[in-house]
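Appendix B, record 7
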Amino acid sequence: PYHDVGMTAIKVASFGSAVNVTLGLPFPRTSPDHGTALDIAGRGIADPSSMVAAILECARIATRISTRLTPTHI
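Structure tokens (predicted):
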């Protein structure tokens, strides 16, 4: 329930450009700031910006983590 409360405020302030980052996992996990939008799926009108931002942020996090790992961590 707390995720939904926080994301509502973020969506109002910056819908389409925010990225959700889940902390505390042993791997990076990000997601776009929007839902599945099934009502517009396949119509060619969806804006992929938030999904692209989520993928790029996940890659940045993974890169930072991998540069800190030593062979004993792997």
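Remarks on this record: Residues 2-34+45-73 form one domain. The mean pLDDT is 81.
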